[in-house]
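ZP: hey, is the pyridoxal-5'-phosphate complex queued? I don't see it on the tracker
AM: it wasn't, my bad. submitting now with these inputs:
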Amino acid sequence: MNDPEGDDEPDVSGFESEGDLNLSPHRERWLADHVDPETRAWLDEDARYFLHQSLSTPCLNVLRSCEGIYVEDLQGRRYMDFHGNNVHQVGFGNRRVIEAIKAQLDELPFCTRRYTNMPAIRLAKKLAQLAPGNLNKVLFAPGGTTAIGMALKLARVATGRFKTISMWDSFHGASLDAISVGGEAIFRRGMGPLLPGTEHVPPPDPSHCPFECGSQCSLQCARYVEYVLEKEGDVAAVVAETVRSIPFIPPPGYWKIIRAACDRHGALLILDEIPHGLGRTGKMFTCEHYGIVPDMLVIGKGLGGGVMPLAALLAREDLDIVPEGALGHYTHEKNPVACAAGLATLECLEEDGLLENARVLGEHALRRIDRMKASYPMVGGGRGLGLLLGIELVADAQTRESACDAAERVMYRALEKGLSFKVTMGNVLTLTPPLTITRAEMDRALDIVEECIAEVSAA
Ligand SMILES: Cc1ncc(COP(=O)(O)O)c(C=O)c1O
């Protein structure tokens, strides 16, 4: 990323990715206009001590508290958090989660290896009961990336093969193994040799489909996965996000085609639902929308209730095949506090009707986004599932050229009005609120989005 010519401006072309980059002039302007000297001093201190990277440090602002759907900055401004790193399904500071954590801290705050504990056993049992099919075996990890690594290892042992097929533009975490199967330049470029045998195929993204399917996915991308499985002949696993955070929402038949292809070619199917499993799409697990069961399912993020780092690999019962080896071995594997948070989170999701809320408000939001599309040529379209929502901004409705500059301007204008969300792939306003959000709050947020699109369109 460093410019070898020594220019001051870093070259970030082709780095459209997970989130908005911190190197943009819009970011600089926002800081100049909205940050007071005290906040600026803390931001400078942060930049002084943290290694810099374009999706975090230097940071935008300093937070001092969060509650429900809101985060609050040092200057006392509150923002609806429609980003939340996708950890906040049950809202920030959820009382049930906090009480469970406090109680567990007083009882058993850590569990030394060789021992187990009741919260860990209860959480593993509950996940096995909830998961579709026979995904009855569980391994916890302190983060999604490490859980993906465990799944890759298990696939190698189970199949005696090492190759994978995964999607361009996907994200599975930031470690070397995860970026090898991931498909984003910002994580891969300049890193030297990645894992061998990691084939990539196009994601189900009709707007930029190399098979030129038009605006409607023709499922050729799904059939191409089988083509590669056949040509390679010895693929261990297809690894993919069931739905992509951008979001890309594959059409109904997509996963059935890939599931059947994996079965025909002896490959395992590993689905990554780290950000969107546990209710965001309106079902507990996203693969339930597609009527298929993967061989391994990876969840994380919100599993820790928006407080604790916790992820889990859920594997087919008959994949319990490495008793003499080690797949995980992470220090916090059975952390009782994280597991207590996980149990409280699942209780909230089930008992507070949060999946239903995600379904109903997601459909409502998509209808409103459709109306925005009719009013503003810049809105190329809306897509989503439950409370995973995206609004694609285009510079030209025909060519669907991305309106990246406009997307950033909308994002920073929305911050001024109290709404925080991220821009993915440069031009998609990505909205992922807590599932606890009310209809009135959702409407207020969509009003802000629309006002900002109107203002930027008119500028
Ligand atoms: C789809 C997906 N997979 C994996 C990860 C990595 O999870 P973690 O940051 O907990 O390691 C993320 C994180 O954003 C993700 O969105």
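AM: back. Residues 143-145, 148, 171-173, 241, 245, 272, 274-275, 300-301, 311 surround pyridoxal-5'-phosphate (CB under 6 Å).
ZP: great, adding it to the tracker
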